[in-house]
Every structure is written in C-alpha cells, then in structure tokens.
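hiii so um. not sure if this is the right channel but i have a protein structure encoded as tokens and i wanna go backwards to a sequence. like what aa goes where. can anyone help
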C-alpha cells in the first residue's frame, strides 16, 4: 500500500508550479501528509563572469531576495488556502536541481510534485530541464504536472 507522509512541492511561483501546489495539497489532504514547499533562489550574479568585477554590488544582497521569497511563500500558502495543512515552507539559495534533491534526502520525502513548463525541444536542448534532472536523480517518486491540461473539479 502507498503511504505518503512527506510531500515536497518545489515552486518558482509560476502558474505551472501553482498547479503542482494544488496537486501536492490534494495528496497531502488524502494521506494526512506533511507538505514541504520549497523555493530555490539561484543567484545568477554569482555564476556569471561579471561577478568577478571590482566595485560596489549592482544588485541587492542575497538576503533581501531570500526574504522576499519567504514572503512570497507565505502569500502562496494564504492564497492557495493551505493553512489547514501541516505545511513547512523553506527558501534556499543554490541550484534548483541540487537543492530539491538535497531536501528530498534530508526530509525523507515520499513524493515530489513538480510543475513542468512544457517548453519546446530547442529550449529544452539549450536550457535543460530542472524537472527532468529531478526525475532522473530523485530518491523517491516524482509526479510531474502540466498546466492547464488537467484541472481539478471541486465537488459541491
């Protein structure tokens, strides 16, 4: 029998991940599971060659971005009416794929629910896919959710 106790839902605050949040919440309700919402802030300035430049930073410190993401997660929880769930929200700096896998291992996650952007083949070849990497390397099953192909119908 399948018994889900901990569900991880990474979010980038897009409509695609919002759909995944709805699926994750439905599974959490069905199985009385904890839900972990994760946003990974990737500091692109650190990974670019201009990060070596001398002089004052031209962008806000990472702490400001992380705090903004935390507030966005709080807003997402309220907006999606998830307050009744056993929910844990976390923001981490890093590479999305690495942080999603790390959290899944650290929290002994039973299921990862992720949105997929459904980009064209050229964008996929050039950019790769965080979701695809997670599916290949995750320590647990991964449910990928497309938007808006399958919508929930709320019972009356």
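sure thing!! here u go:
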């Amino acid at each position: 029998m399948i018994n889900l106790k901990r569900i991880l839902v990474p979010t980038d605050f897009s409509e695609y991940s919002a759909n995944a949040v709805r699926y994750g919440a439905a599974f959490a309700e069905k199985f009385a599971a904890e839900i972990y919402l994760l946003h990974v802030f990737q500091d692109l300035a650190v990974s670019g060659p201009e990060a070596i430049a001398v002089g004052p930073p031209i962008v806000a410190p990472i702490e400001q971005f992380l705090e903004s993401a935390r507030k966005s997660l709080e807003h997402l929880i309220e907006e999606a009416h998830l307050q009744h769930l056993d929910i844990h929200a976390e923001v981490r700096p890093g590479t999305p794929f690495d942080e999603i896998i790390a959290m899944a291992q650290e929290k002994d996650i039973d299921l990862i629910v992720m949105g997929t952007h459904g980009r064209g083949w050229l964008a996929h070849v050039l950019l790769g896919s965080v979701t695809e990497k997670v599916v290949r390397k995750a320590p647990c099953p991964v449910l990928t959710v497309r938007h808006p192909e399958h919508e929930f119908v709320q019972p009356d």
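oh and The CA atoms of residues 121 and 128 lie 10 Å apart.
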